[in-house]
Amino acid sequence: MSLTPTQKTPLDVPVEQRALYEQNFREMTRGTGRLMLMAADQKVEHLNDDFFGSGIAEDDADPEHFFRIASRARIGVLATQLGLIARYGADYPQIRYVVKLNSKTHLIPTKIGDPESRQWLSIEQLDQFRKSSSLPILGVGYTIYPGSRTEPEMLREAAHLVFEAHQRGLLAILWAYPRGAAVSDERDPHLIAGVAGLAACLGADFVKVNEPKAKDGRNAAALREAVLAAGRTRLICAGGKETSVPDFLARLHAQIHEAGAAGNATGRNIHQRSLPEAVAFCNAISAITFDGSTVEEATALYQKDLSSPSLDR
Predict the structure, then answer these.
(1) Which of 21, 97, 145, 177 is catalytic?
(2) H/E element holding 228?
(3) Does 208 participate in catalysis according to the annotation?
(4) Which domains, from first to last, does the chain contain?
(5) DSSP of 171-195, one letter per residue?
(6) For this structure, is 104 an active site residue?
(7) CA distance 260 to 283
(8) How far from chain centre, in Å, is Cα 302?
(9) Which stretch of DSSP H or E encloses residue 99?
(10) How far apart, in whole angstroms, are the C-alpha atoms of residue 179 and residue 157?
(11) Is 28 exposed, middle or buried (0-12, 13-18, 19+ CB in 10 A)?
(12) pLDDT tens by residue, 89-126
């Protein structure tokens, strides 16, 4: 089965790799064209701030919590660094993976230096791992910081990575956050739309952005500009800091059904919860993302799953 006209295979995917690319796209989006990405790259990005402390489930202290959730919940892909996949992947071969190929810590704030995040591993090294592990690795991820003084190097690296991923039938997801001394408002709707268009020019299949903050509070309406700017690059929003389940689901529904976003990338709102809560929440997110469920239907599913004895405690 080929992709639909709005899901055309990019021309930098060789003919002999197109079937694999299309299969990876269908698996990643569960045949819907929308992505539920469970983000598990924060062990680097936020160090231990997101994993231990007040209001964070004790489960989250252990990196395997990511894998326990992803193996039990309905998600599209789990995105994390190759080191964690190498450590835990043998026990969780059923999870679909995206390998995050660059990351940085938050120890150097923007007021001290513009952000720079460079590629850790080559695409050839990833190829070696894919062959030796036989794990279902469907794509790669990379973060860019438009506005940083190191922007030219990151953009060149990102363009290179997208091309090389497509050459192998893999999908490429860009995390795109305008940041640096030259950026006065990281959540400006017009700027986020510009960054979404930049990701399209880099050839990304999906671009992950922060939801913009509109002056009138209509964030989903403001996000529409970014969705249009991204064109055939599908736009997904970061989950952000932890919030209540109903509030999160309402925001997600608006992003998809009002703005036209193609899914979500959620980390802290999932993994900071206990295992049964995290699994139930993933399933509710996926109900909206994959099935087009209403907020009320997804919330009811969350409550039902929480009370189900079949969820591993």
Answers:
(1) 177
(2) helix 219-230
(3) yes
(4) 27-303 (3.20.20.70)
(5) EEEEEE---STT-S-TT-HHHHHHH
(6) no
(7) 21
(8) 21
(9) strand 97-100
(10) 17
(11) buried
(12) 999 999 999 999 999 999 999 999 999 999 999 999 99
